[in-house]
Every structure is written in C-alpha cells, then in structure tokens.
C-alpha cells in the first residue's frame, strides 16, 4: 500500500458532486486527487511541482475550455507517459475514436460504476509497465444480443453454446462460469433474447461494480425509513423483474448474508423489501455469472450451498480464449467487420503477419481483450490491412516469428497477404491450396481432386504448371 499512497490523480471536472464522488472512490485505493475546474486550470496545474509525480489524469468530456480532444493532446504533449482517461455521457464510438487518436488511454461511459472506475485506474497505472494496446478498453462497441454473435467452432465452445441454447428455451435458473472477458454477460443476454421471457422485464446488475451498501436495496428493495438515509421507497430488481429475467454478474462477489437471503427468496418465491411488513410473490428467472467455479467455492465454505443448488438448473462453462486458439482467425475477422461499421472507422482486413501475432498471444483478458486490441489497431491504421506493424507492443512482447508452420497447423491455413498487407498473387495462393490439400489427404490424389472440386487430369496439369511436386 505504500506505493499506492503516493499516487496522484488529476481530475478535470467542473461538477462538484462528481468531483467529490470520484475523489472518495479513488481514496479507497490510496489515490490523492487534485481537481481542475477547466482546461486552462488543468494545464496550469500540470506545470506545478505538486503534479510532478502525477500518475493519471481523468477528465470529463464537457470540461469548460478547449475541446476535450484538444485538451487530451495538450496534456499528452506535456506528460506523454501519464495515462489520460475520459468520462463521457455519449455512447458513440466516434467519440472514442477521436479521443484515442488524441492520446486517451481509455474512456468510460456515464453512469460509471465504482468498481469499473477503480479497475480502469488500476489497469492504466499498474506497475508492470502496461502495454496500452493490450489493455481491454472500459467501453467498446454496442453489444450484440443473439447467439449469432458468439463466434467459434472449438468443441468446448460449441458445447457450451449448445447447452446455453437448450437452456434458453426453458425457465430454469442458469449459472455461466468462465474467466473475465470470455463473454459471460453477452451469452446471458443472448439466452434471454432467445427465451420465452424475451419480451418480459429484464435487468442486469453488476455485483462487483456495485457497493456492498447499495446491492441489498438494488436486489430486494426497501421501505421509506427502513434505515438511515432511506428517504424514499425503492422497488428491488427481484420485484421489478417479476415474470422476467434478472442477470447477476459476478455472483461470487455477493456478500454471504445476501447470498443466504437470495436463497430464501428463490426457495419461497417471495421477496420482502427491507423494512417491509409483508412480502411479494414473484416469478423470476435468474442467470448468474461467475469468474470462479462456484462448486469449488461451496466446498471451501465461501459460497452458500443452498443458493448454488437453487441457481444450478443449468451450468454453462465458457472456455478461455487460449483454450480455443483456433477460433482467433474467425473472431478477428468478425470483430474487424463490426469495427468497420462504427462511425469514424473503416473496414480492415488482417494480414497473415498480424494474425500470427494474435494467435501466438495467450490473451489473459480473453475475447474482450482481443476485441479491444483490434479496435485500437483499427483506430490508428491508415492502410487497408492490419499487419504485424499494427500491433507494435505485441510484436515487442512476442519477438519476431520466422516460422509460421505452427499457425498453419492450428487452422490459419493459406496466407492471403504479404507482410506489407498486400494480397499475394492468385497463382501463389492456388499453389499453396494444392500443397495444403496434398499434405492434408496424405498424397491421395483422387481425394485431393474431389475435395478441390476438379478432375484428376486438371489437378495433374496444375501441378505441372505451378511446379508442384505431388509428394509435397
């Protein structure tokens, strides 16, 4: 904690209430906050001895003074190594593109959950020299809410999707487990969209991003005067979602007392708001996500066994991206297609040199991190195709990759692009396809011809024209 106590955050905002909230949240993790109410004040403050050891800058998009992106450029010009984070009320990817091109490290969309803010600060300033392009962005593109957006053919992933699709048609509770960034929230939303309750109320609560003091009222509700500060009645999410679906992200982070209370609600079908003398009969389907295996937490006494039994109508386990590396090419092309549809961005292809790098990385942040890396690369790429040069930090981390044979074996197949991002000649691609087929079918030329959709005589003619040894 000694190191964190020295961290200094500059907050550029002219809203006193938001300044007090952000400063209080940052103080939880040892941050000291200095506030600038305008762009001019921020630049003046940046030049003072007090801000010599500044660790991060957080600015509101609507700060008085110069345009937010111009301010970011000025701040980065003065302190190029200090991460700059922007808070905005706009969900437009165009603003994110402009902010990143100006030098912003990350951006967050209001209202910002406390844990989201703190995790973004941690990610931007972690001690192990972060590689900006490898950091998952706090906000990216609008989520797609159907199973078609769940791209991948790896057996464990397809098994998980099949199980989820079957469960979606029922009414039972569901648990979705998987590492951070594997797509748990996206899968739960897709299940709700495909369920009989698709048109009924649905609400998502991020337990990890909500303070412990607020989560009880969010879930169960409370009566006016139920506790100090309860000035109004609040209807809880369980009651709001009667007949519908409640999505609970990071259920493993729910307080033990609230786990027991939720288990009781699911067992009785009755929710009683805090301070109420009576309860309400409800019919709610819960889909709960967890970064950790809940069965192991139950065995360790760290999760309520009754709640686990109630929720575990169906257990879906999403594999980490490193466990389905063969899906990276398809995911990459899917994400690039979606990124190209965003305002301010263009459609990019991916060269084999770039795809090799993506396949070689372990992706601790999983699919979410891959999407963020591609988004960053697309923002700064002026060419038609992303190459190895589009991922400089990744190239530095992994080193040069001379041998591409392993990538071919993992499903990369035939290379379509040269290292500079241009398409290879059609004759070269055709030769590689034929070589690949000969190797795949172990030299059985009749099978090779059949799979390529050509006659044997045509195949042998092409072997001669292209100078291919049929023992290749």
Automatic annotation (TrEMBL):
Modification sites for 4-aspartylphosphate: 60
Residue span(s) of domain Response regulatory: 8-125
Entry superkingdom: Bacteria
Domain Sigma-54 factor interaction: 150-379
Pfam families registered for this protein in UniProt: AAA_lid_14, HTH_8, Response_reg, Sigma54_activat
Chief location bin: cytoplasm
Protein name as catalogued: DNA-binding transcriptional regulator NtrC
């Amino acid at each position: 904690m000694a190191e964190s106590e020295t961290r200094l955050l500059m907050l550029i905002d002219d809203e006193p209430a938001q300044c007090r909230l952000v400063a209080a949240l940052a103080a939880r993790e040892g941050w000291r906050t200095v506030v600038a109410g305008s762009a001019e004040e921020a630049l003046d403050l940046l030049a003072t001895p007090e801000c010599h050891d500044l660790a991060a800058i957080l600015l509101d998009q609507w700060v008085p003074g110069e345009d937010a992106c111009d301010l970011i450029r000025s701040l980065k010009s003065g302190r190029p190594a200090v991460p700059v984070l922007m808070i905005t009320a706009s969900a437009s990817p165009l603003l994110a593109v402009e902010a990143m091109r100006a030098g912003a490290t990350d951006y967050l969309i209001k209202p910002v959950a406390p844990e989201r803010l703190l995790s973004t600060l941690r990610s931007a300033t972690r001690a192990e020299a972060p590689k900006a392009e490898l950091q998952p962005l706090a906000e990216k593109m609008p989520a797609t809410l159907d199973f078609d957006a769940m791209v991948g053919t790896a057996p464990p992933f397809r098994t998980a999707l099949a199980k989820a699709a079957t469960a979606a048609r029922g009414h039972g509770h569901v648990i979705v487990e998987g590492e951070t960034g594997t797509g748990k929230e996206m899968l739960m939303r897709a299940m709700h969209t495909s369920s009989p309750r698709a048109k009924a109320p649905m609400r998502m609560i991020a337990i990890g991003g909500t303070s412990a003091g607020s989560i009880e009222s969010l879930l169960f509700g409370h009566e006016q005067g139920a506790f100090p500060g309860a000035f109004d009645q609040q209807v809880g999410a369980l009651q709001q979602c009667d007949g519908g679906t409640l999505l609970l992200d990071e259920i493993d982070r729910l307080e033990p007392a609230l786990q027991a209370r939720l288990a009781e609600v699911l067992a009785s079908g009755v929710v009683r708001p805090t301070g109420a003398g009576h309860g309400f009969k409800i019919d709610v389907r819960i889909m709960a996500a967890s970064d950790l295996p809940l069965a192991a937490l139950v065995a360790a006494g760290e999760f309520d066994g009754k709640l686990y039994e109630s929720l575990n109508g169906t257990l879906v386990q999403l594999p980490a991206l490193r466990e389905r590396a063969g899906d990276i090419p398809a995911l990459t092309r899917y994400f690039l297609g979606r990124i190209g549809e965003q305002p301010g961005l263009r459609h990019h292809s991916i060269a084999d040199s770039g795809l090799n790098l993506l396949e070689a990385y372990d992706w601790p942040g999983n699919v979410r991190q891959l999407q963020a890396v591609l988004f960053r690369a697309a923002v700064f790429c002026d060419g038609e195709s992303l190459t190895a040069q589009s991922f400089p930090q990744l190239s530095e981390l992994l080193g040069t990759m001379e041998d591409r044979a392993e990538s071919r074996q993992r499903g990369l197949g035939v290379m379509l692009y040269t290292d500079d991002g241009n398409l290879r000649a059609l004759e070269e691609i055709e030769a590689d396809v034929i070589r690949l087929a000969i190797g795949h079918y172990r030299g059985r030329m009749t099978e090779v011809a059949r799979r390529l959709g050509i006659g044997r005589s045509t195949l042998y003619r092409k072997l001669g024209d292209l100078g291919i040894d049929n023992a290749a």
